[in-house]
Amino acid sequence: MTETTSGSSSRKGKGQAQRKGVRMRRIFTSPGVHPYDEITWERRDVVMTNWRDGSVNFEQRGVEFPDSWSMNATQIVASKYFRGAMGTPEREWSLKQLIDRVAGMYTATGREHGYFGTDEDAEIFDHELKYALAHQLFSFNSPVWFNVGTASKQQVSACFILSVDDTMESILDWYKEEGVIFKGGSGAGVNLSRIRSSKELLSSGGTASGPVSFMRGADASAGTIKSGGATRRAAKMVVLDVDHPDVEEFIATKAREEDKIRALRDAGFDVDLGGADIVSVQYQNANNSVRVSDKFMRAVQSESDFGLVSRTTGETVATVDAKGLFRSMAEAAWACADPGVQYDDTINDWHTAPESGRISASNPCSEYVHLDNSSCNLASINLLRFLRDDDTFDVENFTRMTELIITAMDISITFADFPTEKIGATTRAFRQLGIGYANLGALLMATGHAYDSDGGRAVAAAITSLMTGTAYKRSAELAGVVGPYEGYAKNAVPHKRVMRKHAAANDDLRPMHAMDRAIATAATAAWEECLKTGEKNGWRNAQASLLAPTGTIGFMMDCDTTGIEPDFSLVKFKKLTGGGSMQIVNQGIPRALANLGYQQEQIEAIVEYVSEHGHVVDAPGLRPEHYEVFDCAMGKRYIKPMGHVHMMAAVQPFLSGAISKTVNVPEEATVEDFEHIYYEGWRLGLKALAVYRDNCKVGQPLSTAKTEDAKEPAAAEPKVIEVNRPVRRRLPKKRPSQTVSFTVGGAEGYITAGSYPDDGLGEVFMKLGKQGSTLAGVMDAFSIAISIALQYGVPLETYVEKFTNMRFDPAGMTDDPDVRMAQSVVDYIFRRLALDYLPYDERAALGVFSVEERRAQAAGEDPAQVAAQVESYAQSAPRVGEESVEEDDDRPRERAETAHTSTELMELKQGFVADAPLCITCGTKMRPSGSCYVCEGCGSTSGCS
């Protein structure tokens, strides 16, 4: 797509002498034909609703998109990236306007600063960029779409790293800078290891607070800014070096807070989402990571002691058992998923600019690792778009696309604005870029490669090497046109050393098939040219590549898989242009089966089986040795944890930065499993690693109630005494009742409660799970037992006391404003029954309040008055009779079999519960994306742009 020539640029950069320009040649476009003219465009109506309450989240009718774009991509782009007030002429309504706004700024800046040899080259760049974006070949990160070409600041970066020193002024600056970044919807990371420990003295003679103490203030700030209007939590990373004297306290912070949550709920405090007491839970707005050194890991290996170092004197102030400290990290991560690990020496061994400072921190998702007070803008290539119809990889066009993207990304730094002056100065001096890709998992499956296989890893490694080699080659060519980055002269020797390390890793590639052999050959040529050109010109960028989560932009490109992730599931939800949705089987499955040698009739039978069951086990005609090709992140056959680690290790040597990815392990994983994964991550040369155990946020030791039951003293010797046996008071044939629908952690259910005519609860029926399932049967039996006991006179408050705060899965957010979070379905049911049938005084003693009562408490009012008013309304309202219950009789069955995302579809088909949050915007269950979550319904993310 591009090439460098000796021609002169038609314009000069500011303050620069006349330079050679980059000459462009067409690949996808034709002279005299605008790229939009070769696309079939259509008008669509975008109406996005929250399916739980039917409210409209977004509506814009008559938007214009290519007919090849899915409705899901259309909705996400129109709702998130179109600028201008709704209902005004300034509101964007066409993808053409969006792309023109962004590409126009890139082309104009490139012209102004001497990137192009001629005006014709600038036009070709403009056309090729617009073609690539309109055809979903790649995408810039979200801030580009939000800001470029608007009246807002031209912020293009999604990833930021801050710094903090051991002074109060620096700490307060950290709070302020972090807040500015959060307000803009981005995330930041920081290393607190320069702050002296709580075991060291201040110059005044007092004892220092220590970094963990200052984390509290930053966490509260992040939570406040989040609650001030953001639709996702503030994304932040906090890092501490393993030799810091406060490292043990740092490791335990979040695990200890999980214990606090349990204790508060068991004591009756309101720690529901938005509850009055949740603010007392700390450190919940950040990801925590420990920076481990090779020295520490070798001490773990040899089971020797390790020294903790004073931040003021540099002396060893304490020694710890390295293996014991390492185990405490694994135990904390097992309990609550934090801390993750960053491998300090590995990161800095691949650092291109060490003369300007060490790499000490990362962005929130851990893929961007570079200098303090810096930022990185990202772009990701849609790999599946480069798979030809004959199932060969389009090496040439992939290479040209990489060159085009790097050129555009470097141009963006020239016009970009930054949240602080320090970040702007560092980023302009080192020009860090982060090109990456999405749809790797889909590409591997479509070509018949198992994700967890030598063949799959060979393809991934070759593609990553070609991408980074081409990116740095283009960076060296740009250095010959507009000059190397400012910090290059000081760092020329280490930068060249890292380039040689990448090239040497490429030499170690061992292709296994024709596909990866062709890619590896091109990668070798790219690295050779990179070294040759860089030796002459230097490089324009200190960093070129990394692998980001690609959550929202992955949906914009209609990707099946995000970042480096495998496929999430074999069946997906597809939104239809005219409204509604349908279930589809991944399009890569028929292609994979054809590549594996299956005939058309066999393929059709297997696809039909997958559509019905959601997996391939026992699919008709499918050979068991091919099952692994269709292994996914979740489901009946899921990729084992070390499969994820080995894939990361395969591509890491070919990335300037790191990889955003969380290794998911099953709930039954042990602390030893965590130790093994963290150790292997270091041994295999990863830069960062996070591990998440399914349900670890709720799958904790037994609750207080169960513990107390277990500790009851043995019964005394039996005595013969007379008792009055209770008499069962049966309900009349016709009795008032009410039905409440609910969701807990994404699981749907119904409560039907019947009352005596003279008031008082007499029966409860709970529906959960599919009819005939074990869960449904257990709930039916449980309902009968509770109902009979109520009729024999067991007070409802006894059940509320016993069953609230009971923990098991499913658990999490509910759709009930009075009970926003539930520890389990049983916890929710008896809280709801208490609110509906117990008087205020009894509920208050049990710690169960309605949302209005909590608001009254927060406002300093008497919640009892609110409760009395609500009860008076309830007494004057008509009862819901048995007839209304019968009318709704079919609804539980209908809704229980309804799914609204691919995650919920897989839960329905395979009977597991995905450990993922509900989207705060549209209410559907999200799915993993890198080290966070993304909603495929509206594109919202839980912390990544």
TrEMBL record:
Gene Ontology MF terms in the entry: cobalamin binding; cobalt ion binding; nucleotide binding; ribonucleoside-diphosphate reductase activity, thioredoxin disulfide as acceptor
Keywords: Cobalamin, Cobalt, Disulfide bond, DNA synthesis, Nucleotide-binding, Oxidoreductase
InterPro entries assigned to the protein according to its UniProt record, in alphabetical order: RdRp_reductase_class-2, RNR_2_N, RNR_lg_C, RNR_NrdJ/NrdZ, TSCPD_dom
Top-level taxon of origin: Bacteria
Leader sequence segment: none
Ranges where the Ribonucleotide reductase large subunit C-terminal domain occurs: 157-692
GO biological process: DNA biosynthetic process
Protein's name according to its UniProt entry: Vitamin B12-dependent ribonucleotide reductase
